[in-house]
């Protein structure tokens, strides 16, 4: 694993609440257990279970969200998640999260996001580049430029359970927080719930306002929705598991980059085994793809592990895996300045790494 950790990587599909350390979740569950809000042993069983279907995984988020309802916890998990990705040598992270309103905690979508931003500012193990306005110095930290650095940008997720109005509130928030590192929006959540027609006008509006859009697409075989999503021409899509011949053709001709989450797809049984995973075909066709973790906490994986798995499952050499990681620079939602700096990071790493 050491080599895969030392290779610089980009993470473009990571859900904040899916990327929490198990130890933190258990600690939070114990606290709620002591307060009599949940039964700790029941929560422990659910949290430590490994093989979950897609519906079970999405149900698990109900428990996780119960554990992460207050601002302090949101700040803490954001800090830890960024530090964990940085420890994996992820040099650019697009972290996505669903802004949540919770009246009993005095939480609005905006204050939820402020807690996330506070978490980014409190990262201490690594220098963080959080935003970059036209004349704003992007790095946050104590100015030691020799320190290891991670670029972090945010995507605001819309959950498919939400109404069009709630989705619009998220888009407005994303627009207002652009100068704080928000670069785009995502549509996620249970693919069996909600209609594309509810969300597309909101996502179209987001795009007109200059936000980039990524969609969870094809987690279930709903061809009508998959076609409508592809025709929307999102800047990227996540998963793309259940496409059929016509839809593959369309995806390839549109050249929409795909965020591939191998372990997540296998664990949720969206794809039955790696030897039939669409990674191989897309990779062989040179279709734009990027390897991502999805929910590193929920699926017990890391960015380095996803690269190691792809290399061994599909017989791809280290140098090609390095190029795969580098090519993802082309699909990030941050601007050209960041892209150039990431190219330099990869150039330096290429001199250092033994292939
Ligand atoms: C669809 C997923 C997902 O936003 O609370 N989420 N949506 N498919 C998946 N594949 C397994 N994994 C995570 O992070 C958790 C939320 O991300 C979405 C779900 O809506 C989940 O509630 P945040 O930080």
Automatic annotation (TrEMBL):
Name this protein carries in UniProt: Adenosine deaminase domain-containing protein
Highest taxon in the source lineage: Eukaryota
Domain Adenosine deaminase: 8-342
Segments passing through the bilayer: none
Family statement drawn from the similarity comment of this UniProt entry: Belongs to the metallo-dependent hydrolases superfamily. Adenosine and AMP deaminases family.
Cofactor(s) this protein cannot do without: Zn(2+)
Claim: Nucleotide-binding is one of the keywords in the record: no
Record keywords: Hydrolase, Metal-binding, Nucleotide metabolism, Zinc
GO MF entries: adenosine deaminase activity; metal ion binding
């Amino acid at each position: 694993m050491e080599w895969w950790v030392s290779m610089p990587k980009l993470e473009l599909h990571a859900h904040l609440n899916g990327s929490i350390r198990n130890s933190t979740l258990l600690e939070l569950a114990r606290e709620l257990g002591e307060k009599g809000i949940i039964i700790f042993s029941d929560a422990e069983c659910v949290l430590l279970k490994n093989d979950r279907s897609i519906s079970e995984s999405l149900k698990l988020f109900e428990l996780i969200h119960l554990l992460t309802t207050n601002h302090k916890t949101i700040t803490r998990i954001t800090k830890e998640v960024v530090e964990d990705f940085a420890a994996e040598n992820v040099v650019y992270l697009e972290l996505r999260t669903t802004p949540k309103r919770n009246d009993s905690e005095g939480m609005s979508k905006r204050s939820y996001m402020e807690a996330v931003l506070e978490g980014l500012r409190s990262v201490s193990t690594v220098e963080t580049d959080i935003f970059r306005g036209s004349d704003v110095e992007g790095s946050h930290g104590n100015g030691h430029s020799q320190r290891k650095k991670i670029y972090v940008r945010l995507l605001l997720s819309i959950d498919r359970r939400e109404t069009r109005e709630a989705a619009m509130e998220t888009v407005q928030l994303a627009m207002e927080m652009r100068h704080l590192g928000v670069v785009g929006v995502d549509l996620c959540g249970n693919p069996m719930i909600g209609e594309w027609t509810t969300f597309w006008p909101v996502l179209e509006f987001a795009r007109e306002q200059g936000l980039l859009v990524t969609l969870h697409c094809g987690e279930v075989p709903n061809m009508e929705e998959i076609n409508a999503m592809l025709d929307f021409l999102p800047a990227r899509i996540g998963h793309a598991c259940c496409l059929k011949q016509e839809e593959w053709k369309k995806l390839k001709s549109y050249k929409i980059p795909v965020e591939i989450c191998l372990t997540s797809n296998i664990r949720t049984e969206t794809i039955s085994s790696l030897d039939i995973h669409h990674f191989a075909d897309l990779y062989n066709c040179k279709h734009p793809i990027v390897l991502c973790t999805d929910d590193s906490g929920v699926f017990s994986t890391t960015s380095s592990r996803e690269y190691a798995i792809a290399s061994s499952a599909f017989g791809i050499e280290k140098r090609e895996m390095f190029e795969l990681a580098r090519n993802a620079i082309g699909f990030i939602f941050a601007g050209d300045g960041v892209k150039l700096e990431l190219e330099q990071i990869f150039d330096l790493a290429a001199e250092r790494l033994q292939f």
